[in-house]
Amino acid sequence: MIFRAIVLSPRSLTVGALLASFVCKQAAGCATVESDRILARDLAAALPVFAAVPPETAIGIAPMPGVRRVLHASEIAGLAQRYSVILTAVPDICFEWRMEPLDRTRVVAAMQSSLGTPDTRIEISELSLYPVPHGTIEFARERLGTPASYDRPAPVLWRGDVVYGGRRRFPIWARVMITGPATRIFASADLKAGEPIRQASLRVETSEGFPHVGKDVLSVERIVGMLPIRPIAAATEIRMNDLSRPSDVNRGEAVEVEVQSGAARLVLTATAETSGRSGDTISVRNRESKKLFQARVSGKGKAIVQTQGLRP
Questions:
Q1: Which pLDDT tens digit goes with each residue over 133-165?
Q2: 185 and 175 co-located in one domain
Q3: CB within 8 A of 165, min separation 6: which ones?
Q4: What is the pLDDT of residues 251-260, one digit of tens each?
Q5: ∠ CA(42), CA(46), CA(51), 5° rounding?
Q6: H or E element: which one contains 61?
Q7: CATH code at 285?
Q8: What single-letter DSSP state applies at residue 287?
Q9: Is 276 a member of any domain?
Q10: Could you tell me if residue 121 is inside a domain?
């Protein structure tokens, strides 16, 4: 009989626990595999006479985690004949991945390692209850959810994986409460939309709460010079989604344009007719010929244009 692994949502925990227990009991007695192939050494663990076959010899495709694969007596007999193995009895043999419950201690250790902040406290309120293959537990920071309010921590969903059999991944999840020292940056004065932020207009505070992670991590150095996309009142915490990066080239400014034509290079000064950041295409005007042409912003006050002729 074959039982397939069932991935359950957090709302199906009770049913999941019962099914997980049932699957584990039914799988008792099978030989275990540790790769995507059943190898001769796996077969030899069940039938020692196959120890004469080179251990890394592939015998067949391994089952998915939570699923049994049975090699029937006829298949075993065929393998014995192929590899000149003498059998006195020919049984059916089942194979499966080694499955185990998630260990909370290992889960928390993987999360702490991912965050890289030893002062952060992690409490698991819910955890995957279905069995998982034996392997390495990973919780990437980018897959950690965020609470509605950073200063009022609440359980958030964090999706992870068990890495097994080399590079294969088995999905897992947990709901966690995370608290620790968190640095937050506030506006010390009203900030106007579109006006570069000055360091004097910022105030830094450290308090207990949900730590900023990934792209949400801010610093004074990162914020200074950025532009609020809407007015920010004094005493308001600054978030990354409140800001935009300033243009590398602004309309009306002088821009150094490098004209490329094969191996030839020509540098000229033009006037930007539109603004843009690195990678954007903008309109610039040749100050001598007054000709308008397109160029790609390559840095602060710089742009590149590729053309068949040397002078646009």
A1: 999 999 998 899 888 766 667 899 999 999 998
A2: no
A3: 34, 35, 36, 62, 97, 133, 135
A4: 999 999 999 8
A5: 65
A6: strand 58-61
A7: 2.30.30.760
A8: T
A9: yes
A10: yes
